[in-house]
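User: Predict the structure for this protein chain, please.
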Amino acid sequence: MESDPLARRRTPNLAHDLVNELTQRILRGDYATGQKLPPETVIVSEHGVSRTVVREALSKLQAAGLVETRHGVGTFVVERQGHGGLRLNVATLTNVRSVLELRMGLETQAAALAAGRRSDTQLTQMREALDEYGRLLANNDDCVAADRKFHLLIAQATGNNCFPEMLLHLGTALIPRTQLNSQERGGEDFTQLGKMAQAEHEAIYRAIRRKDPDAARAAMLLHLSNSLERFDAGR
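Assistant: Here is the predicted structure, written as structure tokens:
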């Protein structure tokens, strides 16, 4: 029987893959609020990874505020609080939606082209942008510039100047959270959103590194779709 794709990809990023998969299941509602996640042994068997990888992934999910572990009982999905957080008005939501819909068409193709055309130097620059994003996020610093840089580097790696020119034209609107005013932002802590985006960015990067256009396209579409879903939740 064919093994799980996660098991076949022997990379140091298995925990990131698992975080991404479990995060999407939670966001889709496959695991509802209050529901207990499968036991570690089940996750190990389903994804073909070690207990160490599973525990690292669950730790990251807990740090992101998606789950909580009750010792001796298990790991449960927690409610994502809207209280005191995003309160988007119609104009903001429409603008964010419009830009993300444009990016879904533009950047999914850019990611696919970048996977086939990127140079080793460009791949190194993407890695550096992601590392910078991670460092800033860990220190609760503004990581918008690093986020934007990563997406622009992908566009440049297409070898087609139209892609980066389009993204540059969008300016700061490229990153949805820059479109919020202080009232809409409320008490929202963007650390959790940043960690979700970080896992999605890593999936895009890995596909481009493997020179897998289909996987790069799918990973970018998932990232942008999830971004839209996260902001829709702020209505």
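The longest helix spans residues 90-117.
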